[in-house]
Design a protein that fits this description.
This protein has 108 residues and is an alpha+beta fold. The protein has helices at 13-20, 82-91, 94-100, and strands at 24-30, 32-33, 36-37, 43-51, 56-66, 70-79, 105-106. The chain has one domain. The strands form two sheets. The protein has a five-stranded antiparallel sheet. The structure holds zinc ion.
Amino acid sequence: MSNICKAFEMTDTKEQREHFSKLEVVERFGDECNGKDLYKHHEGCRILKRCPECDALVLCQYSVLHFYEDENYTDYFSVASREEAVELNEKYDGYEIEKEFKGKKILR
Ligand SMILES: [Zn+2]
């Protein structure tokens, strides 16, 4: 499976959010790998998800910033396989993956 979820090409943020809300959980990777945090800011986690419409895999990185109120951020990375997602977890922490990932991504 090496399809790319069409949400990565969407320019309308609302439409994009709606599409991403249909993603289904494939595997939860938790919040740490090899001593690296799998999130930015204060807490979070990574979850591999699948888009049922595009039959594509998306690695989602959820991060929470504790400020006056909690602020939630989600990064989306288009991955071709579970193996690619695992490799990214092993190599990059929450900030590094944003910089180093070369494929389609949406950072927020
Ligand atoms: Zn999709």
